[in-house]
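Field reference: sequence -> structure
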Amino acid sequence: MIKERRKHLRAKKQLPLKIADKSFDVITETVDISPSGIYCRITRLLPVMSKIEVIMLVPVKGNGRYTKKIRARGVVVRSEPVILENTDRAHYNVAIFFTDISKKDQKAVEAYVSSGNADQPELQIIKN
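Structure field:
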């Protein structure tokens, strides 16, 4: 039997996401999310150990119509090429571990992941 080593719950949920560095911005969405990191697909190779900034829109309590803009710093812990049909661009599955996220934002992600609410919210941002 395989023992789960993850510290936090993970949920397969698609949320708007921006990954940025000094030299680029990539807009995508999460494949899955946890309070300690995200997994996503992008069209840019990010080498393992790359330090990046992540900005995501996470639904907050209520009826799912509001989102909270969460900023975190992270490091790429896995980057794998993906072969997709009908595309001329390379794609990569990327796992990012959060190295700097506020406790408040981490708790907001944790509440969302454990909520089981898969409804996609309207994108109304609540300022931090």
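Note: Strands lie at 16-20, 25-34, 37-42, 51-59, 67-82, 91-100, 125-126.
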